[in-house]
Amino acid sequence: MTPVRRVLSLVLLGGVFVMEGFDINAMALAVPRLEGALGLAPASFGWVFSALLIGLGVGGALLAPLGDRFGRRPLIVLGCVAVSASTLATATASTTTEFLVWRLITGIALGACLPNVSALSAELAPEKLRATLMAVVSAGIPLGLAAAGLFAPQIVAGSGWEGLFIVPGIAAALLAFTLAFVLPGGAPKTEGKGTEPKGKLPQLALLQSPWLLPFAVFAAMLSLNAMNLYLLNSWLPTVLPQAGLSLDSAARVAGVVQLAGLAIGVIASLLIDRWRAGPTLIGMFALMALSFLAIGATAPDASRWTLLLMIGVGGASAGGMVLPALCAYLFPARLLSSAVGVGVLVARLGAIAGPPLGQVMLVNEVSPQFFLAAAAVPAVLCALVALAVPAALAVRKREEATPALA
């Protein structure tokens, strides 16, 4: 593969994450506007948000691992095609049930596609910069989230709430067409001693020795962070107006904090590559927790809360970048798509709780301070799990240092 094609492939893979980030934020930004347009109350959308997560888990566990056997390109391209169709269909929905069905299908398509995007970016990256380049590629998620928030007022003004789904739907179609010609084909090359028996499902290997500890640490952090990420991204445009911001201002704040997440994610990934993963993750999650607790202890103030949310919500978005990148250090290439894919499934089991939890708090009319302070709990738990990262990293080193049996 030529250097130019390698770079172009990485850029386009980053574009898939941008599309995902925009698509995720589209629903959150549309919900406060649907009450006026369709008569649908925001508090009725908790399971609509969760439908995307359920689909991501199903697609990640059942479809994404096919990339380890048949190649990344088919899963990525076909996933983008399906995302395009289902996202454009979402723009035609008029009931919560219709929104739920289309978001579920979108999630399944993304679940099949995204773990293979992460795995292929790891395979295309130089080994010494693997985590950093994986994080830069997955930085498309906060970039897409930010773009949706910053441009939502103009999109809605020109095309109504439907435009929030039309834009990522068209982008997914264009990406599918381009990726089909640019991405390398073929199954991934194996490496290491290959301890899994031939024909054994790689997903099952993750739940057995020696990979159980690394997978448990990875999946636990991914799950807790995903719960925070989807709790906050789903309801922030609804909660901030309760603290006195306008709908457009709340959308812009939701965009700005994602740009902070982009910066945090790149810095954390560089520290993982050049320093140590455990202390980096502990520090990132601890700062998140402190920022949410500070919001809970202060009166609403647009400037102060925006700065604190840049650390808190930005840190959650950064976790979505950094943790898949950490996966490249925890597992060999032959297990990478499977680890990310099954990790997505386990993570979604935790993340699914995020939107309904927010819905319960909204129904019970908790204050914006309490709502945001609640996000400190998953962040603290992530910091505690991160204490086990050094032991998890040691497993792969030990396995690769052991000679293969003849």
Describe this structure in words.
The protein is globular, with a radius of gyration of 20 Å. Residues about 190-200 have low confidence and may be disordered. The chain is mainly alpha-helical and about 400 residues long. The protein is about 80% helix and about 0% strand. Helix 2 (about 45-60) runs antiparallel to helix 14 (about 335-350) and helix 10 crosses helix 14 (about 335-350). It has 18 helices and no strands. The protein has helices at about 5-40, 45-60, 65-70, 70-90, 95-125, 130-140, 140-160, 165-180, 200-205, 210-240, 245-275, 275-295, 300-330, 335-350, 355-365, 370-375, 375-385, 390-400.
Question: What are the SSEs and their pairings?
Answer:
Elements lengths: L2 H36 L7 H17 L3 H5 L1 H19 L5 H29 L5 H9 L1 H20 L3 H20 L19 H4 L6 H31 L4 H28 L2 H20 L5 H29 L5 H16 L2 H10 L4 H6 L2 H10 L3 H13 L5
Primary descriptors:
mainly alpha, 79% helix, 406 residues
Overall spatial form: globular
Rg over CA atoms, rounded to whole Å, is 20 Å
- Summarize the helix and strand pattern as letters: HHHHHHHHHHHHHHHHHH
Query: What is the makeup of the main sheet?
Result: none
Structural class from helices and strands?
Answer: mainly alpha
What portion of residues belong to β-strands? under 5%
